[in-house]
Amino acid sequence: MTLNYIWVGFFIVAFIVAIFKTFSGNPEIFSLIVNSIFERAELGFKLSLGLTGIMALWLGIMRIGEKAGAIDKLSKLFAPLFTKLFPEVPTNSKAHGAMIMNISANMLGLDNAATPLGLKAMKELQEENPDKNKASNAQILFLVLNTSGLTLIPTSIIALRATAMAENNIIGNPTDVFLPILIATYCSTIAGLIFVSILQKINLFQKTILAYLGSATIAIGLLIWYLFNHKNQIEIISSVASGSIIFSFIISFILLGLRKKINIYEEFIEGAKEGFNVSIRIIPYLIAMLCAIGAFTTSGAMEFIIKAMGSFFGLFLENTQFVEALPTAIMKPLSGGGARGMMVESWGQNASQINSFVGKLTSTLQGSTETTFYVLAVYFGSVGIRNTRYAVVAGLFADFIGIISAIAIAHVFWG
Question: Fewest CB atoms within 10 Å of the CB: 134, 171, 282, 396?
C-alpha cells in the first residue's frame, strides 16, 4: 500500500507543479513530461534486457554455491556467534540454523533463497515466543540484522551498472562500488546490533562476540585507514580488490561443487533459468517506477526538493554535492523499486553520469540500506505479530547509519 501511495503521489505532484509552471509562462511543460514518461519506459525495457543476461549469470553461479554447500559452511562459521546473540533461543532450536542460513544467503546476494529461509526462521522463533501477538527480543534482533543488509556481493546493483554502461558504451568498472557497499553495510549492521543490544541488555563484550565483531571491525577499520591515507591508489585498489574477490567467490563455488561432485554445468543452467525469470518479474516494476520518477523529475518537483535540502545542509557544510543522491536514500526504506528508479535517474540521460560522484553514491546508497518497512511487514505478518515494539525504530536507525556511512565512504573513494 505504501508503494501505491508513493507511485500515485509522484504523478499527482508532477501534475500540480506542471499546472503552476504552465500559468507561470512554461506552456511546454506537459509535453516534456509526456515525452519523459515514454523515454523512461523505453529505458526501463532496455535496462531490463541487459539485466536478464547478467542476472542469469549471477544466479547461475549462486546456484552452484548453494548446491555445493556454501550457505551451510557460512552457517557453521557463524553458529557460535548467533548462540551468544540470541540467548533466549534454546541452543537446539531449529531457529538458529534458519537465521544463519537466511543472513548467509543475504550476504551472498541470494535474495530468492533468503526470503523463504527468513520466513522459516520467523516461524521457528514464533514457536519460542511466549506472547504470540508481540515481537520477541530474538525476532526483533533477527529482523534488524536482516534489514541492515550486510552484503558481500551486491548482485543486482552491479548488474544494473554493467548493463547501463554496456548499453551506452561507457568505459569504467561496474564493480567499483563493491568495497564502499561492503563497508557501509557493515557499519549499518554493527549500528543496528549495538542499538538492539543496549535495549535487550546483550553483553557484546563476551569473548565469542568480541572475537567475531572485533576481528571484522579491525579489518574494515584498517581498510578504511589505508584507503584514506592512499587516496591516489583508491581506484586501482578498488578495481583489483572488487574483481579479485568476486572472481574468487566464483572459483570457490566451482571448487566446492567439484568437491561435492555435483553437476556444475547443469546447476548453473538451472540457476540461470531462475535469473531469467527474476529479470522478467522486475521489468514492470522498473518501468512503472522510472515513468513515475521521470514525470516527477521533469516537472521540476525533484529539483525543488534537492535545492531545499541543499540550502538546509549548506547552512552547516561547505560540500553539499551528496544532496543530489539523498532521494535514493530516502526512498530505499520505503520501496526497493522506487529507490532503484531514483538511482537510475541519477545516472542521467544515456547514463552519462553513472561514474560521477552522485552516480556512484546512489549506487552505494542503494546497496547500503534495505526496504525496512517491506521486510518488517512481510516477516511479522507471516507469523501474525501485531505489536512490533521498537523494531521499526531500530531498523530505521540502522538505515540512517548506513546512509551516513555511505556518504562518508563515497567522499573517501571519489570525493
Answer: 171
How far is Cα 76 from Cα 214, in angstroms, rounded to an integer?
19
Phi-psi region of 317 (alpha: psi -120 to 50; beta: other; left: phi over 0): beta
Instruction: Confirm if 289 and 3 have CB atoms less than 8 A apart.
Output: no
Mean pLDDT (the chain) is: 84
What stretches in the chain show pLDDT beneath 70? 1-3, 51, 71, 74-75, 108-113, 116, 231-235, 237-239, 241-243, 246, 278, 282
Q: 4-60 pLDDT, tens per residue?
A: 777 888 899 999 999 999 988 888 999 999 998 998 888 778 777 776 777 788 778
Distance CA 202, CA 86 (A): 9
Give per-residue pLDDT as tens, 189-235. Answer: 999 999 999 999 999 999 999 999 999 889 888 877 877 777 666 66
CA gap 370, 44 in Å, rounded: 22
Burial of 227 (0-12, 13-18, 19+ CB in 10 A): buried
Closest CA to 249 of 155, 115, 111, 363: 155
Are 176 and 161 in contact, with CB atoms under 8 Å apart? no
- Nearest Cα neighbor of 271 from 255, 250, 243, 248 is 250
pTM of the model: 0.75
Query: Which amino acid, one-letter code, is at 406?
Result: A
Q: Please count the other Cβ atoms lying within 10 Å of the Cβ belonging to residue 56.
A: 22
Cα three-residue angle 338-108-232, rounded to 5 degrees: 80
Burial of 131 (0-12, 13-18, 19+ CB in 10 A): exposed
- Per DSSP, the residues of 74-93 read HHHHHHHHHHHH-TTS-TT-
